[in-house]
Amino acid sequence: MTDPVRDQRQSVETTMAGEQPRADQESPVPAYSWYALGVLFLVYLVNFIDRQILSILANDIKADLGLDDADLGFLYGTAFAIFYALFGIPLGHLADRWSRTRLLGLGLLLWSAMTALSGFARNGATLALARVGVGVGEATASPCAYSLIADWFPQRMRGTALGIYSAGLFLGSGLSLLIGGAVVQGWNAAFPVNPPMELAGWQVAFLAAGAPGLLLALLVFSLREPVRGGTDGIPVDAAALPVSPWAIFAVQLQRIVPPFTVFGAARRGPMALLANLAGAGAMALLAWGLGRITGNPGQFWFVALGCYAVWSWAVSLRHDEPAAFALTCANRPFMAITLAYAGVCFVGYTVTYWAAPYAERVFMLGKAQLGWLLGAPAAAGGFIGVLTGGRLADYLQQRRADGRLLVVLAGVLGPVPLVLIGYGSSSLTVFLICSLLLQIVTSSALSAAAAASQALVPPQMRGTATAIFFLGTTLIGLAFGPFTAGYVSEVTGNLALGVIGNLAIVPLALAALIIGMRSYATAVARVASRATVAGDTLTSG
């Protein structure tokens, strides 16, 4: 019987050890690559309309379902983020071994359907379940898209290409406010009493947000699959990939989805089983204690589940696939970039989610006003920031090995004065200007961090590396950023204080980035030269 995990490790080592000619990096990018990138841009736009629309609907949902600000932060962040992170790893592995266009199309169908089903939620629990489904579906998006873009565009253009793709994130976020505000205001005006099917305006907005993705999936299924590693001159022979990618997917699910994680640990021996159970017990005890202290047990049980699952997976990966572990989890600059960008997201997700509820409460703006005054500028600011950041990252990368990380540095430090001024001011104009600039600054770091991390792994591991990269954004940035601000708001009665308090993450993100910059050049050189076998870690320590 063949071992799919062993076969995959041998495939990685064979490709890493082999010296092959690089593709012509100066040749023009084919027109089809730009077309395919446009489709991926639309996918990411729909992705973030579905994810972000909860922001404009937050106050209505809070009133109708009897929730508080901490509950809203949980729904937007934790309920989505934990399962997004949990399934991102096995789906990233599947993206490295199966058709990325098919996987992305299936994921798009799932998250669009679950967004639409959110419109039928009657309480916080059912809405949370729908958000879990959205998270699982959206976990396919970036591992597939990042890997596809790397095979459609040469190294010299990847920061720009990833910037264009990532612009969908910010346009989608902005459009979600415009769409949600228009739908809610129009529906409530048309049906002030006895609405059809007893649906409130916020419920209809979810239905409207989910529908386009169901049609867009047909376009995604029609995309042609590129050759893996072709643009890098190290094409991965399809015959070298595992015959049964779904068998590997099943193995990955067993590694990361409780309670199968316990069985996986038992197969590695009694000491591994004991360590796994001890880790699960410690996390459960911590979750119980924090839940009791804060009065928000759901938040910490979800986080404990996610942390335990990811920890179990990392231990299993180190034991079963040391080459893959060395290239990702033990790769110092890779993990440093992941943590630094997680800090950017901790602040970024906080202001992206809470800006609309804050402006609605403090400045008494209506839904349509929120869409135009916050949504439209957010879309424009994010678009400008991510494209400018991508181009600047590519420009700096041509001049110094860690040039892209300088753009990430701006994303770490730039939000500090803007949050302090915007959420400390009583002027609507000042708040709106700072919100626009926050979108530009935080969005500029995304394509730079993504391109920098992709340069640290071989082509057949880009889907997995992307999933790990987004673990930081979800388990740290999304799972804790919005919730922490909401919790502080409930405790103090001051939402502005909650948002400002989240700047405490900045020193930690800065420290991680400095560590990454110190070893980044050496790590990239090792990958580019293929001078080491896959079992050799890419750290400089």
Strand-helix topology:
Blueprint: H1 4-17, H2 31-52, H3 54-65, H4 69-95, H5 100-117, H6 124-138, H7 141-152, H8 158-190, H9 201-221, H10 245-256, H11 260-267, H12 270-294, H13 297-320, H14 322-327, H15 332-362, H16 367-397, H17 403-413, H18 415-422, H19 428-454, H20 462-492, H21 495-501, H22 506-529
Helix pairs in contact: 2-5, 2-7, 2-8, 2-9, 3-4, 3-8, 3-15, 4-6, 4-10, 4-13, 4-20, 5-6, 5-7, 5-9, 7-8, 7-20, 8-9, 8-16, 8-19, 10-11, 11-12, 12-13, 15-17, 15-19, 15-20, 15-22, 16-17, 16-19, 17-19, 17-22, 18-19, 20-21
Poorly predicted parts: 1-24, 530-541
- Strand segment count: 0
For the terminal residues, how far apart are their CA atoms?
39 Å
Question: Could you give the order of the helices and strands?
Answer: HHHHHHHHHHHHHHHHHHHHHH
Descriptive report:
The protein has 541 residues and is mainly alpha-helical. Helix content is 77%, strand content 0%. The chain is globular, with a radius of gyration of 22 Å. The relative contact order is 0.15.
